[in-house]
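(Structure overview)
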Amino acid sequence: MQLESSDGGSPLTVSREDIEAKALELSGALDTTREQAKNTAVVGVVAIAGLVALSFIVGRRRGKRSKTVVEVYRT
């Protein structure tokens, strides 16, 4: 495939090797991005799970501390 340069000079050629090299470069960049996204997702899930657990423990403790006891007597 031949393309003309922007300055109107000699034509540029793109070989199969050039395309394969660029495809491999993009593939490597995608793999890196995918790994970073996975790491971010794992950290987010752990943080949310910790927040839910902390809320559960604090709520449970508060519920035990301020229980209301209702006694019903039958006469």
